Amino acid sequence: xxxxxxxxxxxxxxxxxxxxxxxxxxxxxxxxxxxxxxxxxxxxxxxxxxxxxxxxxxxxxxxxxxxxxxxxxxxxxxxxxxxxxxxxxxxxxxxxxxxxxxxxxxxxxxxxxxxxxxxxxxxxxxx
Length: 127
Hints:
- The protein has helices spanning about 5-40, 45-75, 100-110, 110-115, 120-125.
- The two termini are about 40 Å apart.
- The protein is built from 5 helices and no strands.
- The protein folds into 2 domains: about 1-65, no CATH class; about 75-125, no CATH class.
- With about 130 residues, the protein is mainly α.
């Protein structure tokens, strides 16, 4: 059955996120205007100001997930044990999640990589 309370809460979070993003873009534009137009008198200030929010959005939506996955890769978190890992899984409770480089060692020494070659796996990834 459809739960209107959860839908309203989710809609509230989406609206809050959009308002936060709009406020951050407005602050970015004001700062760029003050720096580029008022202080530096740069002739190409308008194109820079128009591209800056998109560039910042792309950077945030690409860089943040990469850093998150790098953080998770040092922990023993998986789909059956999914918790907020914290920073490198340290201090997340009685069972710390931090494994260090053990995940990377397992990737290169596990039977999956010993049975298949790099090129076979690359071809399967491409296909």
